[in-house]
Every structure is written in C-alpha cells, then in structure tokens.
Specification:
This protein is mainly alpha-helical and about 475 residues long. Helix 6 crosses helix 11 (about 220-225) and helix 13 (about 255-265) packs across helix 17. The chain has 21 helices and no strands. It has a single domain (about 40-465), classed as Amino acid/polyamine transporter I, CATH 1.20.1740.
Length: about 475
C-alpha cells in the first residue's frame, strides 16, 4: 500500500526543503554523545514556550458534540458511561502525541506524509474520509456556537415576534462573524491564536466547575464508573442506546480532524526554534518531543476533566423524570433546578466551545485539503463553504442535538482512516528514522484501532437489526 512513488516528486522537493527532514536525512536522526548533540537538561521555564499546540487540539475534545453526547449519556445512564471518557482520553493522549511527533520529526503534516508515502488512489480515498470527518465536525461545532448564542439572546428575539428558526439563523450568522474574528488572531501570529484558544478553554472549565459545585455529585460512585466498563443492561433498548452513545462519545472525544491538525500545529515552532540557516538538529527534535509530550498530557487531561464534569452534572441534575434530548431543554431545565447561574454558565460554555472548536475545525479542514491535494486554499473561503450544511440543517428545523449526536457517530467511523495511516507512518524507520515508535507504542496504537473498529461493528450490527 505504501512506498515512494514518482508522481510525488513535488512532495520530495517539499521534504528536501523541510528543516527537520533534511536533518533526519543527513544525520540519520542520531544524537551524538558529545558537543552540541547532547540534549540540554529539562528546564521548567523553557517548557512554557512549548505550551500551545496540544491546547488548540484539545478544544476539539470539548466541542458541542461532547456537550450533546455527554448530556444524553449522563441524563439517561447516570455515571455509567464515565469510563468511556477515561479510556478515550488515554487513546487521545497517545494519538495526539504521535501526530505531533510525525510533524516534528518529518517537518510535514499527516496529510502531506500520506500524499508522499502512499499511492495516489489511496491518498485520494484517505482525503475523502478526512473531508467527511471535517464536514461532520464543522456541522456539530457551528451548530453548537449558534445554539449557545440562541440560548443567551434568543428569548429577547422571540419576545419581539421572531420565530425559533429565524432566531437560530440569526445566531448562526453572528457566529460566522465571530469565528472570522477568531481566525484573524492567527494573522497576528500563532502564539496569539493559541492564547485566544486557551482563554476559551479557561472559560469553559470555569463554567463547568460552577456546575459541578452546584450539583454536589456522589464522587465515590463517579470514580467507580470511571474505571469500571459497563453498559446499561436494564433492557435490550437500554443496552442498544448505551452502546450507541458510547460510540458517539468515542467519536466526540478522539476526534479525527485534529489528528491531521496537530501535525500542522507544531510546524511554526519547529521553524522558529531552528537557528539560521533554519536547520533543525536531532537534539532539538528530541527536546521538542519531550516538551510536546508534557503539552499533550496536560491539555488532554484538562479536556477529560471538563468532559467528565459534563456527564456528572447531567447525571445529577437531570434525575427528575426529565428526558433531555435537546440542548435547549437542558438549558431550560437547569434554571429551575439549580438557578440562573447554572443555566447561564451552561450557555456561555456552549458558546465558547462552539466558537473556538469551529475555528479549530476550519483550520483542520484547510490542513486536510492543502496536504492531500497540494493546493492553496484560503481559510476564510473554507469557513464560508463549511457553514452551508449547518445553515441548511437549521433552516429545515431538525433537532440540532440529534444532528450533533449523529455527526459524532460518523466521526467514530472515520477515525480508522486517520489512525491507521498515522500508525503506519510513525512505525516506519524509513519515515521516522530513530524516532520510529517502540514496540509497546505500536501495540498500544493498534489496540486503540481494534477497540474503535470493534465498537463500530457492534453499532452496525445493532442498526442492521433495527
């Protein structure tokens, strides 16, 4: 399936121009034991310069799709599905680190590496799967941003005679403008964009800290279900629904589009850290990988805590016979149960999640199309194109929450198309040199793919049997 191909000569030129790749080719990615090749000691102050890429990637792990699946999972099955988040997060840490590692070592993104090392038909097939994932992601995230605005300001519009659909469409248009504004941060430099995303993360985390404080959860029960894998077994329907939600939660947590994106997010620092003539030495690669592992570990665990807080809040708050299958129902239920502060925090968190993750989704879409097809695609044009499906869904009056949950199941099915190429590439010495994955990392990676595919097969059988 893989191997260098003559039709990829343009990629070979890119690789030749890539600082990290040229270093790998000339130095064999080996760190000498003397002189400048010795890895400098770990420096805490230095670490902050490397924080950022994983935090941008992590925003996709707490996007509106997570709100939708976590609210349904918590309200219907209590703490029972918390274990899905724990194990999904463990997978996310491994996968995101491998994505970043591929980008750091080769100097190319995952889509660019696929185009270089796989046959053209295979690369096109992978691009199609990646675009499906990107569209599903954009749909969920943009709908979430529009819903957040609608929950905050929709009542005022409804009081003025607007219909619910008109109000939601207006919120979608405002969301578009706001996302363009966030994208403009990147024009000021990648660090400004990273800081902006970190601010959104902090707001979402603060909102859910308030929610958890208000509901007073049973921490012992929550901890038990976080480590004990179980599904609902009360009835055949409960079992089927809990498996469906588990797969959706997996798709909402291990997001395929940021597997592609993370390999691109590390590139600006890779160039910045290299001294003139912008050639990255193997020792620098090792140092970057060390700090990036910390970046990934901190960011992904932060996202896991926020996701867990969503389920815990829903498990405790929605236990009064209320069927929560809609974000608006959740918002309106929280007010009477826990007070206006809880409802307001929920809406603000959803808005921040939708705006920031939608921005990250657009960037991922740009990385996908440029990397696989080797074309330049303006990011603002990408944003305009991807809002069309979301606007159409809003205009038809379908339940946004049901569409969001369905989109997360779609993401779970497209995950192998991102994971398998990533594992193949990071396992190859011809691609990674001495940085190729160790045996235990390969086992863990393929185990992740096996779990995801197995859950998808179970879901397909359930759907086929009605």
């Amino acid at each position: 399936m893989a191997g260098p191909h003559s039709q990829h000569d343009d990629i070979d030129r890119e690789v030749a121009a890539s600082p990290a790749a040229s270093a790998a080719a000339t130095a064999g990615l080996k760190v000498k034991e003397s002189g400048a090749g010795i890895l400098p000691p770990f420096r805490r102050n230095e670490m902050w310069k490397y924080f950022g890429p994983a935090f941008v990637a992590s925003i996709a792990y707490i996007d509106p799709g997570n709100f939708a699946t976590n609210i349904q999972g918590g309200s219907r099955f209590g703490y029972r599905l918390l274990w899905v988040l724990l194990w999904s997060n463990a997978m996310a840490i491994l996968i995101q680190y491998l994505s970043a590692k591929l980008g750091i070592v080769t100097g190319l993104t995952l889509p660019q590496n696929c185009r270089k090392h796989f046959s053209r038909p295979m690369a096109i097939a992978l691009w199609v799967a990646a675009e499906v994932a990107a569209i599903a992601t954009d749909l969920a995230e943009f709908l979430g941003a529009a819903l957040g605005l609608y929950l905050l300001f929709g009542p005022a519009l409804l009081a003025r005679g607007w219909s619910a659909t008109q109000s939601l469409l207006a919120a979608a248009l405002v969301s578009t403008v706001l996302v363009f504004g966030i994208l403009a941060l990147d024009l000021a430099g990648f660090r400004w964009f990273e800081r902006g995303i970190m601010v959104f993360l902090a707001i979402i985390g603060a909102c859910y800290a308030i929610e958890v404080f208000l509901v007073h959860p049973d921490w012992q029960s929550a901890a038990l279900h976080a480590v004990l894998p179980t599904f609902a077994v009360g009835s055949k329907k409960d079992l089927s629904d809990s498996v469906y939600l588990a797969v959706s939660m997996l798709g909402a947590t291990v997001m395929p589009h940021v597997i592609y994106l993370h390999s691109a997010l590390v590139q600006p620092r890779l160039i910045e850290m290299a001294p003139p003539p912008k050639r990255v030495l193997p020792a620098m690669v090792r140092e970057y990988l060390r700090y990036e592992l910390i970046d990934v570990f901190v960011a992904m665990n932060g996202a896991w805590l926020i996701n867990s807080a969503m389920i815990i809040m829903a498990a405790v708050a929605f236990t009064h016979g209320v069927v929560v299958d809609d974000v608006e129902v959740a918002y309106k239920t929280l007010g009477p149960l826990l007070g206006p502060m809880a409802a307001g925090a929920f809406a603000i968190a959803l808005l921040c999640s939708g705006l920031s993750s939608s921005t990250v989704g657009v960037m991922a879409g740009q990385v996908i199309i440029e990397g696989f097809l080797n074309i330049r695609f303006p990011i603002f044009v990408r944003r305009l194109i991807t809002i069309i499906p979301a606007i159409a869904v809003i205009a038809t009056g379908f339940s946004p929450l049901k569409i969001i949950v369905l989109s997360q199941a779609v993401l779970s099915f497209t995950l192998p198309a991102a994971l398998i190429p990533l594992l193949i590439l990071t396992n190859r010495h011809g691609v990674m040199g001495d940085f190729a994955s160790a045996g235990r990392t390969r086992v863990a990676g393929w185990a992740c793919v096996g779990i995801i595919v197995s859950l998808n097969v179970v879901l397909l059988v359930q759907l086929a049997m009605g």
